[in-house]
Write a structure and sequence with these properties.
By secondary structure, the chain is mainly α. The protein has helices spanning about 5-20, 20-45, 45-60, 65-100, 115-150, 150-175, 180-185, 195-200, 205-240, 245, 255-260, 265-295.
Length: about 300
């Protein structure tokens, strides 16, 4: 049976960032530029839309004014599209450096057909995921309703068991279909269902690779934050600053771009750009490595 090393797949992102420092620096600069653009969007967001977004975040169960909601969605939709573009550019860059290492123009960063196909695949999968969740919840509701005729205890047990089974089923399908993005990139077409056959018998290896990669990213995030805060604290004390000034990076003044981009925030964005570049590499690489190994053995 074809297979791959879950450990090698999980750690591939660290390998490519170590062996391709120029690409890592280019990705860091790109992520930093995206942070600056995000700051511009945040600072210039209309007050009405900001109020609607804050209202939704503070009380998601409440029904906001229709006008405020529509204005918030009008602002949120371009931001989500912008985020999708960035995600696909970075994801394609990681796929390119693994599957087409010789194609290093612009440090593997592009916005072309490959990225557009990844965007289209994401939108298709979003629709399919919503349909799947709705369908599963309908089935769960039917099972729970039928069980309710046997009493409250039966209803509670059936509902909990059905929800757990549904969650497990959705996770299983998501993992089995997780190679669709890299297959879409490599095959040059929307590979919506192709991942299912390629990942047969590889569920637990894929889960192990993804979980290990996420754990590594979590550890790196903590180390980055600890190192940044330690250095920033030393600089703050040496320059006669206050801890309150340092803590503003977590609650920045969004009045103007000048107040938002204080020295500590700029430094935080630079470090964040480096971490984001590593994050994309580590998260996207396992799928690319798994596909590379499995397709070569197929």
């Amino acid at each position: 049976m074809t297979s791959f090393s879950a450990t090698d797949a999980a750690l591939e992102g660290f390998r490519i960032t170590r062996e391709r420092p120029r690409a890592l620096m280019a990705w860091t600069a790109f992520c930093f530029a995206i942070s600056v653009v995000s700051a511009l969007i945040t600072v210039n967001m209309p007050a009405e839309a900001r109020a609607a977004l804050e209202f939704l975040q503070n009380d998601p169960s409440a029904t906001p004014d229709a006008g405020m909601l529509m204005q918030a969605l009008a602002i949120l939709s371009p931001m989500l599209l912008f985020g999708l573009v960035v995600q696909c550019i970075m994801g394609a860059a990681v796929y390119r450096i693994i599957l087409r290492p010789q194609d290093d123009k612009f440090s593997y960063l592009r916005l072309g057909r490959d990225e557009l196909r990844l965007m289209a695949l994401t939108l298709v999968y979003l629709v399919l995921a919503l349909m799947a969740v709705v369908a599963v919840q309908i089935v769960v509701a039917i099972i729970a309703t039928l069980a309710s005729f046997l009493g409250n205890a039966a209803f509670s047990f059936a509902f909990a068991a059905a929800e757990l089974f549904a969650l497990g089923l959705l996770v299983f399908v998501a993992v089995r279909m997780s190679l669709a993005p890299v297959m879409t990139f490599d095959l040059g077409r929307l590979a919506i269902l192709d991942s299912w056959s390629l990942t047969r018998g590889q569920f637990w290896r894929l889960v192990a690779a993804y979980v290990l990669a996420i754990c590594c990213v979590f550890v790196v995030a903590i180390l980055f934050l600890m190192l940044f805060m330690a250095v920033s604290m030393i600089v703050t004390i040496a320059t006669g600053g206050t801890v309150a000034e340092l803590m503003r990076i977590f609650q920045p003044d969004e009045t103007t771009l000048r107040t938002y981009l204080n020295p500590f925030m700029i430094a935080y964005m630079v470090v964040g750009g480096l971490f984001t570049a590593i994050y994309y590499a580590v998260v996207a690489a396992p799928g690319a490595v798994a596909y590379q190994r499995l397709s070569a053995q197929a």
